[in-house]
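A quick aside before the break. I want you to see a complete sequence-to-structure record at least once, exactly as it would be stored in a machine-readable document. Don't worry about memorizing anything.
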Amino acid sequence: MALRIAMIGAGSIGFTRRLLADLLTVPEFADTTFALTDISERNLEMVAQLCRRDIEANGLPAVVEATTDRRKAIAGSDYILCMIRQGGLEAFQFDIDIPLRYGVDQCVGDTLCAGGIMYAQRTIPALLDFCRDIRETAKPGALFLNYSNPMAMNVWACNEYGKVPTIGLCHGVQGAHWQIASCIEMWARREGLIGWEEKVHRKDVNVTAAGLNHQTWFIRAEWRGIDFIPRLASLFAEHPQFSQTEKVRIDVLKRFGYYSTESNGHLSEYLPWYRKRSEEIEKWIDLSSWINGETGGYLRVCTEGRTWFETDFPNWMKGDPPSFTADKRSEEHGSYIIEALETGRTYRGHFNVVNKGHITNLPNGCVIEIPGYVDRTGINMPVVGALPLACAATCAVSARVQEMGKEAAVHGDVGLLKQAMLHDPLVGAVCNPEEIWQMTDEMLAAQAEWLPQYAKEIAEAKKRLAEAEQTGSRAAVRAGYQGAARLHTKTIDEMMQAHEEARANAQAADKGKMTQNA
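That is the input. The structure line, written in tokens, reads:
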């Protein structure tokens, strides 16, 4: 099967090599052409060198093409994978630092909250350009597989305005599935149902998760015919690790009755209850890993990872290439979906798709995350039905914020952008309306170079901010505030002291720096 697979944002460290390796574990895909594209020629060339070396070491005929000409990469492609970070780390810094001036303390800031909403304003116009190129140059019916956040807003815009079949892929369900398996394993050993050396694999636990990306809920979890939904709250509270690292998720589980797929830090910034008072944030987080709630944690690890990769690249080339074997294949959905569509081998997973009555108490048209299966007939998404009411209420608020954010990004509508910020659960819990209006103006002004659809509006935003300064009506800000739990970003010298840890972080954290071509 001589496939052509385009990867946009391929200058990323983690995703590009990982997805390429996953695909090349499939025997039928040995002669695939991977068309890598990025706006950073330097980053693209480094990743392409690594990929070519890996392919050669595995004795495969696959080909890697690398070009900064996006249309050339997409032309004739069967599948297009996207892993861009629009605006790179520079824009990401604004997503974290400006809201902090107004007391909005985010851990990740790439899906909802102030950072996620602004991320959509930068990313959606780029994705719609990609969709145009796909329509015009890719093979008819080419599938767009998106890994870029904010997932729901991006996939919604691509399907509605880009007119390209787009599926959103995330690994949050898999990670939480493993956590549930760990809790069941602990319980089963205690009950004498398995030996002390036996393991419970996540595939042994039948689950159904449904909701919005990063706000998806396990509404079914069964092992050996036992329903564990009523037991999860006590099992997580008793778990020696999760009881410390997942305090927000456990509290929500206790109050809602259902466990969220998303990490402690991510979940905490989508809700109005856990990060609105800076003096209480440390109560709900854990600093053993950034993902458990560290202020600006994802920005820190991405910054460290990118710096390390660009510095340490020669040593990466000297290292041992990975083996493309089935046992090393990751749990990322992308390669399995393509394999199922091309070979007919059925694959089951949780995917982000447009709601068409699949979740009956969330708005049709929004992008939901639900279980489905893939084979030669396509991507098949069964009806889930209604979510439990508390889960549905939380998701419904987020869906409407996402809708406003998506529409604002497509049309360059500042009023709608500010209304999205106003209705965001955490932003609304921390800020009053005038603070939100001024914070949004400040974010627009700082990110002007990545917001072409707001070109006329940004001049007015800057004028409003200047007038507020002159008249003394400027909202009070917390100048220099670093948040409740911000850690130092390591220098190269500091990372040299633990270079293996730095390399592992670089491989896992970075998600690309691609923006649209001029």
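Two observations worth writing down. Confidence is low (pLDDT under 50) at residues 510-518. The two ends are 34 Å apart (CA to CA). We'll return to this after the break.
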